Amino acid sequence: MPCPFLGSLNQAFVRNYGTSLMKKYGNYCPIISRGFRSLGQDETKCPFIQQNSIVSEAPKEMTEDIVEQIQPYKYEKFFNEQISAKKRDYSYRVFRKVSRLAAEGVYPQALEGAENRQVTVWCANDYLGASRHPVVQDAAISAIKSYGTGAGGTRNIAGNSQMTEKLEGEIAKLHNKPAALIFSSCFVANDATLSTLAKILPDCIVYSDAGNHASMIQGIRNSRAPKHIFRHNDPNHLRELLSKSPAGVPKLVVFETVHSMSGAICPLEEMCNIAHEYGALTFVDEVHAVGLYGKHGAGIGEERGVQHLIDIVSGTLGKAYGNVGGYIAGSSLLIDTVRSLAPGFIFTTALPPPVLAGSLAAIRLLASEEGRNLRSKHQAIVRYFKLSLLVAGLPQLPSVSHIVPVPIKGADKVALVAESLMKRGHYVQAINYPTVARGEERLRFAPGPYHTPEMVDSLVTALIESFHENNINFDQFMVNGACRECSMEYKVDIAQDELFKFPMQVA
């Protein structure tokens, strides 16, 4: 029996508009609606459907609104490939479970692994042990009791505490600058300051040292200002590049004093003078120098008497000062400009009260006579360690600072030596790409004033054993405790006397 509804319509009309009719009225037909629910079953008896073979093979018009399901991107597969590639080339970072101890008599040791095995730490940037000094601890504890643990938000929203202003005033005084500004980290300080200044200064050109830290590189990149790279610590190349720059255009010369991975120290005065000769501002990172050099611990600028040549100095509260955070210091207008325009400052939660109080106490401590004693003992143990490596024939990069790099080429080799040292009770992290270039892998040692000559001797012995264990050759000067050339027994009495020249004033 023909469909009474479709039979009353013109067949040409049905052929042209059948799809629309089915969509709009099909659910009213008991036969068709039953057929849609049980597509392909014999109970579908509608003569229109059977005659036009709609069930067996639907025309294109009937399926035009059916969307083919697209498989989502395989994110986890991509992430797995990235991590696998890092593991294959030995650049995958393994964070050791190391809890540094602060108590008198155990520092600079730590508890390592699930077994809480005690090891000696050689790679922390808490260079002078300020993080565990009782004066610093007491200041932080007192601030927690008085003001709580958190800042409550950005300085614009939560308010500008008196401790914040005191700390910025102390930093400005330390560097002989009119003003200072603190950030959540020195990475943020460098990034926010450089990206802001190089962006707002009209047609600014940046001249960046090839060895600059990632934070400065990131800030320069974010500014999108044109840049030129000069060879690491090479004032002649800097002059060559600046001499080609257009006159009257704003310029920034960006470099650091103590290089974190090589221990090299820049020719600060010469580089600042060249920058100023061509009308550039100097941005100098003193992160690995503040607290450690100069009469009051202001860094290489103070030690060499050239603080006035540095237009903008950046530093950290998280290394020698034993807390967390970063800062810049400079002219009042420059600091106010960064404060007013830098998103990395404006939209970041302020440093919490215990960090502010602890940092203020640490800066004052290291500017005092006790700080000078700590620095002297620190430099003495560094010299002892360098000499011990030399006599043992172990490799070391030429460093004039407190950072002692021991090169071990190959990410796999440096990781194996670090693991061998850990088994012998000495923790030092393997340094590989991207912190250093491939082929320039190393162990980076940072002995401090609380390391003893006996600890150094134990470490050097462990290093020799680790090199042998992993089939790494080195030019061994010592054989059974004596010089291989003249058989004279090795002793460093002068250096040991120097180590105990300055009494420690820690309760």
The share of residues in extended strands comes to: 5-15%
Spatial order of the strands forming the largest sheet = 4-10-9-8-7-5-6
Structural class: alpha/beta
Mean pLDDT: 88
Q: Report the helical percentage.
A: 40-55%
Indicate the radius of gyration in whole angstroms: 34 Å
Give the count of helical stretches: 21
Q: Separation of termini?
A: 107 Å
Show unreliable segments: 492-497, 499-507
> What's the total count of β strands?
16
**Major sheet attributes:** 7 strands, mixed
The dominant shape is extended
Detailed description of the structure:
This protein has 507 residues and is of the alpha/beta class. Helices cover 43% and strands 12% of the residues. It contains 21 helices and 16 strands. Strands 4-10-9-8-7-5-6 form a seven-stranded mixed β-sheet, with helices on both faces. A four-stranded mixed β-sheet has the order 1-2-3-12. A three-stranded antiparallel β-sheet has the order 11-14-13. A hairpin with a 2-residue loop joins strand 15 and strand 16. Helix 7 packs antiparallel against helix 17, helix 9 packs parallel to helix 17 and helix 19 packs across helix 20.
